[in-house]
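S2.1 Query sequence (Variant surface glycoprotein 1493)
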Amino acid sequence: MDDSRSKLFKIALAALIVTLYAASTCEAAVANALKKSYWSEVCDLAKDSEKIPKLALYNLQAAAQSGQAALTRLLRLMAYHEIKRSTVDNKTAALWQYLAKKTGAELQDLASNGAATAITATRDAARFQGAVMDFMHLLASTGTSDNKGCLNTAESGTNPVQGHTALEAAHISCGIDFSDVTPAAETAKLMGSTGPTISKQNGGDANAIAGGATTCNINSVKSTWKMVDDETGGNPTVQPSMGGNIFTVDSTGLKMDALADVTNKAQSHPFIHAHHKAKLQLNTPKTQFSEIKVETLGQDPDFQAAARYYLLGKNPTDSSGDANLQSKINAHYTNSVALKAIVETAVDSETIPKELTD
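Output structure tokens follow.
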């Protein structure tokens, strides 16, 4: 009996040891791939950020070109009057001061906040897109021909994306443009007043955002997630953030964070918070100056001070007569067509050395 009990004890002990060893070395339970309706909008959001550097370049060029156009027109007008020995009346002096003010304002914008805002916004948008697309490429690279991967090509089924080339083919906005930045007067559309405006802005846990194309190792529960816990089997206290702060891991697996409001998430979600701030700071295409428009001069802040002094006979800072400003402008200059004949056509028909103006 003693030998029999001893043998049974040894068998039971061996079985227990095997069980404990298996438990300590087991892989984390893995779940399904991300549904296309979720990951495609992540790509859309990243792609939309490319509009920020395009707008930044557009605004910088518009400011430089506006300043150049105003200065060139001013110098040509002054040279023309010097050649003709004509009297500089009040309406001409007002135009001179306006063009000088316009030149100074555009150059000042470039020298102060304009350039800094454009470059900072470009930097932060690029950081966000880079973080997002690096993670999307990682997810895409897990796809294999045996129906395993992390990005599903649909809402269910077992057909994962296999590699970054296939990623772009599956959804065009997942492609990254490495060509030179070109100017465009278009603002980012998928970032609103508080955060992203994509339909999946509220995110969801693994049960909501994943389905089909099983065995995505990245989509495993937090307690055994290899990137933070290796093989200890404990419950990690850290909260990882991935893909430009869009994704994390919880008790269900890979989770898409709620992103509808990122205004106060500078510490927890720095990439997407900075991108949101960049969009708010750089959200208006700059109006480029090319010619003087009589019909809108009354609303142009660069002309108001000169018009008050030369056309209304008031102090340049006295706005009490501004209600009559546009009608006074119309009386002096008639309309843009008539003014153009005086300040452009007549002037440009005169031979003026380019060294003086260009």
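Residues 11-28 have pLDDT under 50 and may be disordered. Residues 274 and 328 are 46 Å apart (CA to CA).
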